[in-house]
Amino acid sequence: MPKLASPHLLLLLLLAVFPFPSSSLRAQESHKISVLLIDGQNNHNWKVTTPLMQQILEGCGRFDVDIATAPGRGKRLESFSPEFSEYDVVVSNYNGQSWSEATQEAFEKFVAGGGGFVSVHAADNSFPDWDAYNRMIGLGGWGGRSEKDGPYIRWKDDQKQITRDLSPGRGGTHGKRVPFLMIVRDAEHPITTGLPKTFMQAADELYGKLRGPAENMHVLATGFSAPATGGTGEHEPLLMTVQFGEGRVFHTTLGHDDNAMKGLAFQVTLQRGVEWAATGAVKQLAINATRLTSNVPAMRDPADVRLGELAAIPDVTSKGWVTLFNGKDLSGWSQKNGTATYRVEKQMIVGKTAQGSPNSFMCTDRDYGNFELTFEVNDDPGLNSGVQIRSLSKADFNNGRVHGPQVEIENAPGESGYIYSEGTGRGWITKSQPVKDAYQNGKWNRFVVRAKGDRIQTWVNGIAIADVVDAASSKKGFIGLQVHGIKRDVGPYEVRWRDIRVRELK
Question: What's the pTM?
Answer without folding.
Answer: 0.63
